[in-house]
């Protein structure tokens, strides 16, 4: 054997190098002869010179393909083939390319291209998976119509578009809408469907189906309702109708991400579509509703208008996340959705934006595009659209969107096309605003105020710290929604959007009778860090009086964070203002239970670690863990009189419904049970476990039994009851790792990876165990280094099968430089061990090298 050569540095792709492809594709015909290890794919593709391009190199992407034959205009040709694709001499004018290739779906463990999952064939082509199916210009700016013939002995054969014909052992599909190859999909399996219909507002009758394995048929009804609601909502709010005669959704167990918006044939991770009351929690139902909406909304924002190149990914993802958030806000509670999104952004996007993986919403270079399906592109990308909407107003926003759909339907677009429609409609100059797309890092805003003669002045300063590759930052346009409260809590100035454009900028409010209390960044109007040192009394005032629900919650959050920081730093007792403020909110029966549950939740341990690090203190994960536990106990004691009543009041009678109302009550009762279980030894949780008739109650009971140090018998009972159900078993795995004490977490995860039901082939199962370890803050970052070492072991094992999921999960290491020298040494060793693995994938190589780079 040769010396173990270091993994070659993969090639970097730059946005500035974009050039159009030399040819247009007029039509694509594909024939699939399905066989597990020897599927034949025959392509017949009509090419013509692209008048917009100068370079006529005929290069087709192709990876892991066995070329059987190739023809141009019926004549056999011998192209030059490498492991990336092929080149071939071609005629000057239009021509027909034909190729036959062989691929092996059964041994495709990367879950990209055509692969098999439990005997079913399925595809995943975004971003660059189509090149593993046949030779093709696999880039999003090449769009074409597809006709697909599938031959196979499975009863259900599906592809994009409308059904063109079918018979014994074959089916043909035709998609009349030109699309890039990443939206291609094929499914073949022994599936059954949950059917329905939808009539669009212009009268098109659409057949709807959710396709599943027989045993999952009872888990489809909710997803179907969510689909119909999404279709109606997009007509009503954006004026967008569905455009085919059929819309299919397929549930697949082995899937790298949540779901995929392939034209007319969405493919879903089972966990993102299947739900029944006895197997799925309220949170699962809500997530499913949002993902179904997200994928459906892509039909216009992504499919009809797609991306010119992968640097423009946020064009479809940011916008579609923004749209699905609007949908959820309309279906459920808008304030609670906003709070959820802010929590999620702080938990996932802020660490990314302020660490070694930081990149702009529109990156300008990458090695592996799969590594850029990030919280920054998706969630910060959606926040940028929210800011734009706040700046131009609702009317301006919807006018700009109408123009976008009108002007760009059928095109592959850029962020410049997107901002241009806003400029054209509103007359605004968005050149400074565009920094949100090009500048990475989270702006930090500090605030000073002054008061004299009835005039109140707020002065803001913005600063963005250097990020990898971007040492200097320019000021951004920041919409800061502000309201002012009078001394007795009345609102004296309603919400006003201040438009900050300078590094330092003042805004005045005059004719005020008394010095007001400001409520700043209402509704989380910008994805920034508001660095504002408020006294406990000021936060308590806002928690009691703020008329903006988001900021009311935020005030409680600030109190909780300050309390935890004091507990960690000075071993202080929990703050009285915090405890009393929470009690007052919990008592207020006019407040939505879901909102009260949000107020009761504590900032995550990782968020406290980040806050300490920002304040130049090295975080000690065990001290943070202890403070978290200590505060929960103290809350339980302080609220002791109130908790049993709250628990009883928020029980839901009657048939289970996943709607926001009952789910909110269960969320509050669940949070309350979490506290009760800290003082009653698990007695109430035990009762709830016995009585539970839905998964939300069963799981919260089991979780709280574990909190109370009980639940061994119930864990076994739960296993016996549910071992046949993969999605429920994922919860069983995850719960045990999540509840393990810091010094036991790595060992628990290791033990569970040796469980007979653990497998590396199913990403959901891998995430259930190893993702839960990453989320167990004090366990993963344990001083022994055991968490890091186990993670490295398992990621190395997984990388050989599934680079995409491995690379995504590597990001769990992204905060490693926050911690002390001992922990850093363990983390570095783990990362270097991954980096040094022979044959490591390009995906993982890029992630690990970015995390090890000088930051
Ligand atoms: N476009 C998909 C979405 O946001 C996500 C996606 C991208 C994906 N690449 C994937 C899903 C690979 C599964 C596998 O909805
Ligand atoms: Zn998406």
Give an overview of the whole structure.
With 855 residues, the chain is an alpha+beta fold. The two termini are 36 Å apart. 41% of the residues lie in helices and 21% in strands. Among the domains are: 1-190, Sandwich (Immunoglobulin-like); 308-314 and 324-531, Immunoglobulin-like (Sandwich). The strands form eight sheets. It has an eight-stranded mixed sheet, with no helix packed on it. Helix 8 runs parallel beside helix 10 (576-587). Mean pLDDT is 97; it is low at 1-5. The protein is globular and about 85 Å long. Bound molecules: tryptophan and zinc ion. The site of tryptophan has 12 residues, from strand 20 and helix 2.
Quick summary:
Among the domains are: 1-190, Sandwich (Immunoglobulin-like); 308-314 and 324-531, Aminopeptidase N, middle-beta domain (Immunoglobulin-like, Sandwich).
Main sheet overview:
8 strands, mixed
CATH class designation of one domain: Mainly Beta
User: What's the CATH topology name of one domain?
Assistant: Immunoglobulin-like
Q: Helical percent range?
A: 40-55%
CATH architecture name of one domain: Sandwich
Distance between the termini: 36 Å
Number of helices: 26
- Give the uncertain stretches in residue-range form: 1-5
Gyration radius, in Å: 27 Å
Number of strands: 31
Mean pLDDT: 97
Biggest β-sheet: strands ordered side by side in the sheet:
6-5-9-3-2-12-15-14
Main structural class:
alpha+beta
Strand content: 15-25%
Q: How would you classify the quaternary structure?
A: single chain
Kindly report the name of the CATH homologous superfamily of one domain.
Answer: Aminopeptidase N, middle-beta domain
Hetero groups in this structure are: tryptophan, zinc ion
- Overall shape: it is globular
